[in-house]
Amino acid sequence: MSPATRAAETPGRDAFAARRFGSACADLAQRVDTARPVASTDFLLVACLSDRAGRPPEGDAVPRWTLARRLDALIAIRQAGGAATERVGLRCAEPGCGEGFEVEIDLVACRRPGEGSAIEFEADGETVRARLPTGADQARWQAERTPLHLVAASLLETPTASDAVVAALDAALAAADPARELQLDLACPACAAEHRYAVDLEAQLLGAFAAEQGRWLGQIARLAQAFHWAEAEIAQMPDWRRDFYLARLEAAGFGEEAP
What we know:
By secondary structure, this protein is α+β, with helices and mostly antiparallel strands. Helices cover 42% and strands 19% of the residues.
């Protein structure tokens, strides 16, 4: 495994290694878009993961991975690019303040390499069993705007649920995958007011990958404009060569960097 990869630790024979996003032309095959989280995650997992034989996961398999497993693999891809933390912008929730500030999320602490496919929890005096949601579930719920009680019914072993069971299921899912919506108790650096903030880690990671893809396309556009090279030719260059040519252009005062 090269220094640019990390293990996306999935169980047994399904173990995959993650490579850095932005290190292969395949990373330009589809736009990473935070407005399309399921499709963007599917694309990233197939493009940037490979098993010990160098094969990517099957495209029709990754939607069936649990949300926890998918998020863990996204974190592994981000780590493969050298990121140890993810910087998140927040705004103070104190009335009359609204000051913006940033917090760094420890990606190692958010890893969840081990996983099952079901959970058990107590509700209404009984033990209730439910399966963990998958990427396919997420896609369907987003497309259909599924109400919470129907979401719960689709996961529960017995698809009838009281309000207490729905609430207990929500809590059990949050405990099983705490990194998906991080709950952070933070004090505003401006007014010192303490509030709890929810951070959607998947959205933050997809935003980071989208920004990285945009920067890469900007570099390609600038080099193509200056040297009339083909997109594929520029994309296949190692980083140090692109950086070299871009530095020469900047030193010569050639044009503006593409957005």
